Amino acid sequence: MSDGCGVVGCDVVVIGGGIVGLSTAYAITRLAPGTRVTVLEKEPGPARHQTGRNSGVIHSGIYYRPGSLKARFAVKGAAEMVKFCAEHDIPHQVTGKLIVATDRAELPRLHALVQRGRENGIPVRELGPAQLAEYEPQVRGLAAIRVGTTGIVDYGRVAAQLAELLTASGADVRYGAEVSRISRRASGVAVRTTDGTVLRARALVNCAGLHCDRVARLAGDDPAMRIVPFRGEYYELARPELVRGLVYPVPDPAFPFLGVHLTRGIDGGVHLGPNAVPALAREGYGWSAVHPRELAGTLAWPGSWRIARRHWRYGAGELRRSLSKRAFTEAVRRLLPDVTEADLRPAPAGVRAQAVLRDGTLADDFLIQEAPRTVHVLNAPSPAATASLPIGREVARRALAAMGARV
Question: pLDDT tens-digit profile of 13-27?
């Protein structure tokens, strides 16, 4: 509601129109009907960054430490995402996926994943080479596990549906609304956008993804982390008939990326990737995308250098695969021996908003911090899209508590 002077009043303002921000706003309208919610998104539409630039996998939660937010929310979120898509006629499939060991050294890690999956309540089936071939005739491996609850969806469609539901419920979803200033007082929060509009709210939720640490500092809070952007580069498989479903390597537990995998999307195409290389801008979807000020901020953060020293061997391999199509093809051939360089066609890249602590620790779990009348979502990479509905409820409850509402 505007007073005619460029000032808008609401109860909760949510910064960020990705799937987590929209899910949070949606949860607020469900938990506390009548609450006035405004979503501010700087892009001309929803889901323009992490949400709309991923492989579209509904993750099972098998990788995550039992009891962690990631494990709890991914397992619950996968089931809720399937139900939400069914209710709103959003195309999706529960395909299951294979995690394949191609080297004997990976077998202990594969067996550990079986145990972790069972601890998280996820149905897991162990496969030998012959059983693997029944699911994926062109994939080679020493052993595999099948995770039955994994699926695929277009998260951009999910985000668009959430935005429609919010608008229908009376919420205000504003695009092209970039935040330039935040002022916090005992009575509430004032947010100014670059067009001069001021929004006054009783509580603020920061779901700004790639820019969440910057928004936290605008609010006067020290998030004790920085977003270090990692670009994930993909290729599309020219012969999609080589892959029936989803095929993953055994991940390296020392790094929070899953390695180059094979993903048949909801459109029938097969994506190969991603690798993970440092991006030279928060929205750096290619090597030519450089933002000097953002890059300087990344380089000035002590944690960035500590990551480089700790993981330089892993990083060198990722850079090699980024700069060499042959090297990327070699990584794919570990799982899919018949693939050639000619089978790989460039596909759009994504950027992961990875929270890095001062000591160089890569935040492994979802990171949500609270301040007076404010909730900051500071680390929500994959599987955040899968887990977005339960994450949204958790953040919504905290936001409503911050403004003194009872749920």
Answer: 999 999 999 999 999
Instruction: Label residue 186 exposed, middle or buried (CB < 10 Å: 0-12, 13-18, 19+).
Output: exposed
What pLDDT, on the 0 to 100 scale, is given for residue 311? 84
Tell me the domain boundaries of the chain. Answer: 7-50+156-224+365-402, 97-148, 226-357
Alpha-carbon torsion 266, 268, 273, 276, what sign?
A: negative
Topology of the domain covering 226-357: D-Amino Acid Oxidase; Chain A, domain 2 (3.30.9)
| CATH of the domain spanning 7-50+156-224+365-402 | 3.50.50.60
Q: Concatenated DSSP letters for 68-108?
A: SHHHHHHHHHHHHHHHHHHHTT--EE---EEEEE-SGGGHH
Phi, psi of 185 (to 5 degrees): -130, 175
| pTM for this entry | 0.95
3: pLDDT strictly greater than 80: no
Q: Would you say residue 148 has pLDDT above 80?
A: yes
| 31 token code pair | 């938990």
Q: Could you tell me where the DSSP H helices lie in 274-311? A: 292-300, 302-310
| Number of other CB atoms surrounding residue 300 within 10 Å | 10
Q: Is the model's pLDDT at 256 over the cut of 70?
A: no
Tokens for 374, please give them.
């404010």
